[in-house]
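Appendix B, example 12.
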Amino acid sequence: MDCGRSPRARNPRELTATPSTFGKYPTLTMGVEEELMIVDPATLDLFPGVQRIRARAESYDLPGPVKTELHASIFELNTPPCATAHEAAASLTALRRGIAEVVAAEGLAFAAAGCHPFARALDQEIVDDERYQHFVGWAGVSAQRQGVQGLHVHLSMPDGETCWGVLEGMLQWLPVILALSANSPWFEGVQNGVHSNRAEILLDLPRTGAPPPCGSYAGWEAWANRLIALGIFEDATRLWWDVRPNPHLGTVEVRIADQQTDVRRSAALAALIQALAATIIEAGPSGDVDPSRRGDYHHNRWAASHYGPLATLIHPEGNRIATAAELGAELLAFVAPAATALGSSDLLAIINPDVCEADLQTVLSTPHEVAADLVARSLA
């Protein structure tokens, strides 16, 4: 999670256009971020060991950096820019294997999921970094509650308008991806009936959910720059939407998915998101967006977070309903030609739209059983 305090207002005349690097990499070049939990192997509780792990990792040849997150019990792994989904899958696997050695050398363990099954977020130590401390000072308990982990997928875009077009085209399908990725059914020791508690908790922050219907990248940039000038936020990384333009990296960044326990599912969801973007680009501009569809999105997001694949969603066409599982199958068929062209059909075959990883947690009786299972499956 990119964090920061609310800055002072600036003189709008001093504001320049949002810097971007669109076109730096070939279109659809992929980068994947995994957010993982540090666990005490004896108690299975969260452990604030991120600085120890980062220091230890410097002597290992990992294929990507180890980064801090808001809480000292979380770290982030990033793949390098990958030309294909299979390359991203290999990088994710190598990162998991490498970090397992690093964490074990520190006498610790790690687990991958949307949130820890019994740890309390408000009890977790905040990383001793100015940006995180300022963020908590500004957002208070809303920030402290963000003890949740997501799978983020960056896709390089050739220009801002293509980026915005892909963003708008993806929105109708993102609640389906949330349902397929739901992996946080336990929260603070309770199985509360919500498949993705992470998705619910994220809404505590401002500027979450779906972006406003700005009409174009130029419209979004004008809106963002106006709010930056007013001092509402410092830069585009302070927008915690489910999908956002990331002009600094030249990408569209898809942030909807819960962190997956099985690294193969992380790779499969990344491949699905890449194939969806390719399908949208191939289809070309879809014309004006009906702002009322944001209401459909908010309903679908809520339903997907609560019920996973069994959720009843408004169909992207807007004229009927279907389960998230049915729409998942439709989405896989929709992107199949692009997946074939990209060489990732075998990765998409990993996804069964009828189930999600939350289902594997809900059949266990206690949160400690869940934590032990997450540690074991994160390494499998």
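Residues 4-17 have pLDDT under 50 and may be disordered. The chain has one domain: 27-379.
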